[in-house]
Amino acid sequence: TMPRNKKGDVVTAITLLVRQLEEKKLTAEQEDRALRMLIHLVGDLHCPKHIRYADEPTSGGYNVKFRGKDVKYHAYWDGLLLQTYHPWGYLDLAKLVDRYSKREREEIAKGDIFTWGEENARNSRFTVERREGFVITRAISNEDVKYAEEQIVRGGYRLAALLNDLFE
Description:
three-stranded mixed beta sheet; globular
């Protein structure tokens, strides 16, 4: 069965999925679901508003102003920002942002799910400063999209490392 974590802790859920996949006792259907969930959750781990901070328990469930419109701050980070800057699709985006050397990719993939989670929480902390009604200017969104692109790269290389470890 799929791991269920009532607290919503993505690090714990990923750890449980990896353990299940390592045990190699899943049916083909269960393995497929576990892999799909693992891929999804490693991506979620790298989204700034999927991180919960004690001083912002809503995780961005409030409105900010982006390009003159009220949008949920969580939705801004969960796809709206990248879709606005890169409307052509995620495969093309992946080609655009995948510009790291082999050594840089290896450096990004170092560590484990716990250190990745800690790093993402530390680096995404700036998002908590923005509260209900915050106006995201063009300059701010230009910086945010660079960060989002970096997070996609980090998540992708880390997912690849995780999958390589599982299936080598």
